[in-house]
Amino acid sequence: MMALLRHLALVLALAFMPALGVVGTAIVAVPGAAHAQQPPSAPDYDAWNNLAGRAADAIENQRASLASFEALREQLAEWRSVFANAESINSSAISTLEAQIRALGPAPADGESEGADIASQREALNKQLSELRAPVRQAELAYSEADEMIRNVDRIIRERQAEEFLERGPSPLNPANWSDGLSALYTTFENVRAEMSGALYDPVRRSDVSPRLPAAIVLGLIGLILLVRGRFWAEFLVRLIMPKAVTSGKWLIRFVMSLGEILMPFIGVLLMVQGYVLSGFLEEHSARVLDILLTTVLIFLVARWLAQRLFPREDDNRLLLRLEASDRKAGRLYGGLLGVIIAVMHFIRELADGGGWSPEARVVMVFPVMVLAGLLLIRLSRILAKHYRSSAEDAEDAGAESGGYRSRIGNLFVKLLVAVAIGAPLLASIGYYKAAVGLLIPSLLSLMLLAVILVLRGVVVEIYVLATRKSEGSSDDLFPMLAGFVLALMSLPFFALAWGARVADLSELWVRFKRGVTLGDLTISPTIFLTFAVVFAIGFLITRLLQGTLKNSLLPKTRMEMGARDAIVSGVGYIGIFLASLIAVTSAGIDLSSLAIVAGALSVGIGFGLQNIVSNFVSGIILLIERPIGQGDWIEVNGQHGTVREISVRSTRIETFDRSDLIIPNSDLVSGVVTNYTKGSTVGRVIVKVGVARGTDTRRVEAILHEVATAHPMVLMNPEPTILFRGFGTDSYDFEIRAILRDVNFIMNVGSDMNHEIAKRFDEEGIVIPFQQRDIWLRNPEALTGASKGDAQSDAAGDRNQTREDGAEKVAAQGPTKAQEAQRMDDADGAGGAGGDGR
Description:
Layout: H1 2-27, H2 33-36, H3 45-61, H4 66-86, H5 91-103, H6 116-165, H7 178-201, H8 203-209, H9 213-241, H10 248-258, H11 260-279, H12 284-310, H13 325-355, H14 359-398, H15 402-429, H16 433-468, H17 478-498, H18 503-515, E1 517-519, E2 522-524, H19 526-554, H20 562-587, H21 596-609, H22 611-626, E3 634-637, E4 640-647, E5 651-655, E6 661-665, H23 666-671, E7 674-676, E8 684-693, H24 698-711, E9 722-728, E10 732-741, H25 747-765, H26 781-785, H27 789-814, H28 818-824
């Protein structure tokens, strides 16, 4: 675990995210990769059988130590890589023979025969093929054997690690163990002091040390100054050059310069160590302590730097955590102290591993540090809880639904931190030291990794802002969110290592990932998938480029109508995607014949379940080929009028005249009745109905209506407008204007203009447009009023006269005129909607 801690600290301090891909590659590098660079050759199966026998005995007896099993697993992994490489032996020759055999045609079925020459040639080729495939089969068999042994070794190692994790040891609360811890620590440093004393009191070594001592002291002093003052100098330099990071470019420069807070103190420590080495005092114990000290200081510097980035002093809109200045100050303090805790635990545990400390000494020295770490984690969790509450309140004010989800996740994370802070010291106090360490150390490392992800996501956001010149809400844009997801995905191996996974475990996952997933006789590996994706992407891009060229350059120069152009462009898109898929499958070497039966059975079930979708798809193809309707056409379907805006594979989008979208399945357009008002031509007919009072001169009315129709600029004179006397209505003579318009899209505008002109001309000519009249009689008014008979008759007569007048007034006020009724009924007679602004 401590070796892992050292590697993680180095990565966090020096590599950061640009190096994560390189480190991830190094982590998953398979042992024996050097063999993969050499041409395939036959393995030494005698040496392998010897190792396989020893490995089988070790797995069977399970008496070897963990270190022995790890070494055995490394050897097995190397041999497995050799066998994987040997599986490609004779691959070119095998491919050639298989092509020759295919050229001979299929082998004759039972009871059939073929020519003697072809049969002999087929037999010879099959014999050669069997000979060439023999070493491949042997390599595959050995690979399977090595792979199974590796699985068994990994299982044994995991079982032992689980047993050690739950093993109960000495308690740090037992006073009898306290002296062991102090004695072990004293012995370690006493060994270092003894080495220095020996160098000073030994005349030979003293004569060797004396000339080097001035230079060593100078290096040590320079290193000490950098260690103590380097961080402050880096901060002063940042404030001097960039007082305020207003723009993203300045912020990024400040971020890069802030790395000096790590580098300068660490360079100081390196100079101090180099000075000690130069002095000649370096021996076994001191060398081990200095090596541990370097990693310890680096861990602390990285943790402090992360705390400074997460809880900055400046108040600006780039805060990674929504906290007040006082909370950020406390966060910097607790983050730095947690860095000290991690560094101290690393230092003690590395000293214990190298010095052979007893379990009692380990527990006694680490337990106080665990308690302090738990207290600091509790304090830090309270600060983080304030951030999640503030984020939830801001999201609630903004009406964002994701705010509640993030708040719940954050609160759960805070509770887990508190549980670790309390649980780890309790476990250690009752003797479960390894369980406590296995819980606390990974939690602290995970905090550091999360801090790195947050900081790097902030860097990505600033780079995105600098590139796009955006400022408001950039952190919630798609690209920064995807970048955060990628960062989290790339950090998964490090989280796995922090929580106890072995490098061998990650290597095993990588090996199995490269081998691919087998589905029946079909194997899908990363290489196959990448080949398919790249070829399909290229085909898709070529298809889109071809569509764009046709749509914008070639087809506009033809005499095709817009619907035909769209149909051609859509057809090219479907054909191009189909060909891109077919070429990608072929290029990747995917043989789908083994899935033909399964695909056939699935297609039957899918066909029944998706028959409506298939029907709409086929109907869409028919619409694109036959083109009964096209984009821009004014159609009527199921009583709905609108303009066709888009014809897709499944449905057609129609924009109605009230600017709402109507989505109609294509099957309804193919199988139903559709009226297309503008198919081939925009010429259409308008019908305007007019009623006049009885006794009006009908010929005069006909002449006036003819003048009104012919005077409108949208009416065509060939054929001329027609005025029809349609009949005798209940209260009027009914007339109609029937005229052909230049553009039927303006039918409502034309009807409205004609109605205005008709009303004006009728007023000038004294022609009356009648209204409906109704008489209402009360037959027993005395029963309603309760008056005397004479008074009732008088009142009834008065009521009757008054009711007739009131009824006429109400009808005149509420009933529509005949011209208005005619205008409202034009759609029912086939006039339809209107275009332009009058729709």
